[in-house]
Amino acid sequence: MTHISDAPRAYSRTHADTFRQQLHEFLRIPSISADPAHAGDMQHAAEWLAADMRAAGLDNVAIMPTAGHPVVYGEWLGAGPDKPTVLVYGHYDVVPALMEDGWHTDPFEPVEKDGKIYARGATDDKGQLFIHAKALESYLKANGSAPVNVKLFIEGEEEVSSPNLVPFIKEHLDLLKADVCIISDTSMRSIEEPAILHSLRGMTYMEVEVDGPANDLHSGLWGGAAHNPALALAQIVAKLYNEDNTIAVPGFYDDVVPLTPDERAMIAKTDLSEDDYMASTGVPAVWGDAAFNIRERIAARPTLDINGMWSGWTGPGPKTIVPAKAGMKISSRLVGNQDPHQIFELVKRYIESIAPPTVKAEVRLLTTGKAALFPFDIPEMQAAARAYERGWGATPIFTRGGGSIPVVAEIADLMGIPVVMMGYGLDDDGLHSPNERFSVEMFHRGIETAIVYLEELAKLRS
Amino acid sequence: MTHISDAPRAYSRTHADTFRQQLHEFLRIPSISADPAHAGDMQHAAEWLAADMRAAGLDNVAIMPTAGHPVVYGEWLGAGPDKPTVLVYGHYDVVPALMEDGWHTDPFEPVEKDGKIYARGATDDKGQLFIHAKALESYLKANGSAPVNVKLFIEGEEEVSSPNLVPFIKEHLDLLKADVCIISDTSMRSIEEPAILHSLRGMTYMEVEVDGPANDLHSGLWGGAAHNPALALAQIVAKLYNEDNTIAVPGFYDDVVPLTPDERAMIAKTDLSEDDYMASTGVPAVWGDAAFNIRERIAARPTLDINGMWSGWTGPGPKTIVPAKAGMKISSRLVGNQDPHQIFELVKRYIESIAPPTVKAEVRLLTTGKAALFPFDIPEMQAAARAYERGWGATPIFTRGGGSIPVVAEIADLMGIPVVMMGYGLDDDGLHSPNERFSVEMFHRGIETAIVYLEELAKLRS
To answer: Is the CB of A234 less than 8 angstroms away from the CB of B231?
Structure first.
């Protein structure tokens, strides 16, 4: 039996080296959205990607401005109105990376070693979004057409929580109109266990500042009668958690939809052992709310983490000061139906209520993102499962993801379409960490799976 | 009545502008001992000072190596063996200073404004040590001789707790041999209330590191089952203090010599009001152990302060990680008879005992300094009081200092001589803070006081 995906799959194999060299080029651009110093690199990355889309044969390729970093858009609508339209979302921005964080090689000079591509953004998300660009290119080059209409919608602010994405979607609802959205920005446990995510956690990201003296004080002249802001911050932080490692902010869990026994049974099938968690992360012991298993804690339960903390002198040697201030970045991973803004208000009110009068404490909101949940028995999800069976060579599991991709809930809300999250990374790819990597084999199997998925989606309206 | 100090005092007045311009030159050299990047500036500062001493007429001026930054030494021994020998100790190194800390002008480009010299090191200690260099120069230029023998002993590592000073003193006991040591590296409350310090606090300076995951983790993929190292650090810090703001480390206060009712009565005469403390520091409220008044808390009681704290992402924007580690610098100001090494052991043992098994905690010793206490009815102290009356124009008080000058206890122990601390700064000079400053008037009154003190010391053996 022949398929219309056969020639594109063959094309993707014969062009595997070319695709990989192109990905290397893309990875060399340090498109760090959080750092204003890299604004030029962000523009460069957008232009590089637009040029690649044009070369692949996409139409109406454009770098579209936002209040922040631009969106890259391109489309191929030659399948006609009777065929489904697929919106592929991805992001070309990456999180910061410095050699001194522990990289073995330059994070922006990709190195292939033991079947992995090492570079910042390799798996999150340049490598994964590239899979879809190359799948569509394979159709257009091998067949001159694709079985469905495809729109590529690649943003540059995912790693700073997509502050300008909702206005962009609202303004371009017609342009982006589609029947299903595909996102490849997640991961699986092992290459033989591909996973389709049907749930993601939301996010409330905050910054806290505690102010004491007007300036740093000489600790010998003044120390002993000033509440050290770093001490005050630590005392506040220590009250964020209860003894049982649950979050102490009043009302924090009020809107959490409880897990049903059925869901818990499904999650238990893919639970992580303590040994696996320790081996993957390097922690000396597992921590958390003992009322939930590890997989539930990291994917189905809300969190409150300190992402950064600072005060006073952090350079070499001693400096004997009482610091003027201390601060931290904290963020909550949220689950349905927690509202990100409501969580901010609860945290802010609680911290202000426990801050002692000997310092001033301020809590600011940085970014938010909603949680998302989709049923997995709909045709678009089941078609994705068949695509993995044919294109990847393994049956996928449906699972919940612990991460947050702000656009997912927004696309579902604003466009009224399901979002299918087909992650082609591995759980231990080290995204957001030093030595981020992406499996070469999975890159190529991903392209074939994406090729087959377009064919499977076409069948839904044949 | 004429004095042998008359001509030198007159000389110091006619050369006031020159002395100040020389001080500006000295202050322009960013001699930051804590930062290896400034090693060249340290050498430059030492050479500049040695050249100034030679020009003033001192003999045997030398830049003497240590395992760290060098000592600058110079002497004038022309008074002969029948006259006392005075050892002047000071330091030419300064603490770090960056514009972004809140400086209004370049910390290493001195600016005179409203009668103050603004620059890092202006009061601590370049301006103050320079008083003695210029006092001796005034004698040698005006009279061709000084009434006592003088040795200038200026080190370059005071701000990093003088790690190489004790070996240096031990190795050069003959060279440094003297009858009394003078140090000007402290301050008074107001220009009309000069203070002679007879006590200083000691120091134990430590660094704490809490390690969790092997690398920063993606908080969405792994968050919820890893003990956040910043949270763990905060939980440890929160246990360093009791509810009443006393230090919770078992045994911490065991060796503190209790203040007698007489001492407390003397201290009460110079107590600070809450308003004064708040106005000087900018804190919103006074803090500390309510069993002691403010002056006792900042000068006669031990402390435990966080000097710096760090974890994870502190750059702009959000980064959603569970940090791999968190750390802090903490230091204790000690009072007699607390032993700095014993305090380190107590703090280390306590932190290790309260650190949870879900992280690894390590406590390292950075530096130590002993506390010091001298009687104030000895002739050298009383001669200093007379020098203030004649040279400064006000009667000094004898008081305890909250700071730590490691050399003080060491000189007393190793050389068996008293140390007279005649501080010419103001309590609110902002040392170790942005916009450090030094009063021009006090610089010149200090030189005259130092000139008179040498005469008063000569009288002790007339």
So the answer is: no
Contact A366, B317 (CB under 8 A): yes
- Eight-class DSSP state of B205: E
Asked if A240's CB is within 8 angstroms of B237's CB, the reply is no
Chain B nearest CA to A350, separation (Å): 17
| Amino acid found at A387 | A
Distance from CA of A214 to the nearest CA of B (A): 5
In this complex, is the C-beta atom of B305 within 8 Å of any C-beta atom belonging to chain A? Answer: yes
Q: Cα–chain-centroid distance for residue A311?
A: 29
- Note whether B375 contacts A: Cβ–Cβ < 8 A: no
A343 within 8 A of A254, measured Cβ to Cβ = no
Cβ of A210 under 8 Å from any chain B Cβ?
no
Question: How many Å apart are CA B232 and CA B359, to the nearest integer?
Answer: 7
Q: A431, B326: Cβ pair inside 8 Å?
A: no
Mutate which: B319, B335, B344, vs A, most A CBs within 10 A: B319
**Amino acid making up residue B10:** A
Give the DSSP letter of residue B389.
Answer: I
Q: How far is B397 from chain A (nearest CA, A)?
A: 17
Tell me how far CA of residue A9 lies from CA of A3, A12, A138, A443, in angstroms: 10, 5, 7, 13
Residue B84 Cα, gap to closest chain A Cα (Å): 32
> Looking at this predicted complex, what is its ipTM?
0.74
DSSP class of residue B36?
Answer: G
Closest by Cα among B210, B101, B217, B241 to A311: B101
Nearest Cα residue to B18 out of B61, B46, B55, B73: B55
Q: Flag whether residue A375 sits within 8 Å of chain B, measured between CB atoms.
A: no
DSSP class of residue B459 equals H
pLDDT 10s per residue in chain B (462 long)? 899 999 999 999 999 999 999 999 999 999 999 999 999 999 999 999 999 999 999 999 999 999 999 999 999 999 999 999 999 999 999 999 999 999 999 999 999 999 999 999 999 999 999 999 999 999 999 999 999 999 999 999 999 988 899 999 999 999 999 999 999 999 998 999 999 998 889 999 999 999 999 999 999 889 999 999 999 999 999 999 999 999 999 999 999 988 888 778 878 988 899 999 999 999 999 999 999 999 999 988 999 999 999 999 999 888 999 999 999 999 999 998 899 999 999 999 999 999 999 999 999 999 998 898 888 889 999 999 999 999 999 999 888 888 877 789 889 989 999 999 999 999 889 989 999 999 999 999 999 999 999 999 999 986
Cβ pair B160:A317 closer than 8 A:
yes
**3-state secondary structure at position B119:** coil
- Taking one residue from A and the other from B, the number of pairs with CB-CB distance under 8 angstroms is 354
Nearest C-alpha in B relative to A35:
B316
- Residue A291 near residue A313 (C-beta atoms within 8 A): no
Q: Do A306 and B218 touch (CB under 8 A)?
A: no
Report chain A residues whose CB lies below 8 A from the CB of B160.
317-318
Q: For residues B131 and B110, give the distance between their C-alpha atoms in angstroms, rounded to a whole number.
A: 17
Chain B, window 391-450: residues with a beta carbon less than 8 angstroms from a chain A beta carbon: 401-404, 427, 430-435
B246 touches chain A (CB under 8 A): no
CB B9 within 8 A of CB B143: no
Q: How far apart are CA A106 and CA A94, in angstroms?
A: 15
| Cβ contacts of A317 on chain B, cutoff 8 Å | 33-35, 160, 366
Rounded CA-CA distance B197/B201 in Å is: 11
Between CA A125 and CA A364 the distance in angstroms is 28
A98 in reach of chain B (CB within 8 A): no
Helix (H) or strand (E) holding A415: helix A406-415
Cα–Cα distance between B151 and B439 in angstroms, integer?
26
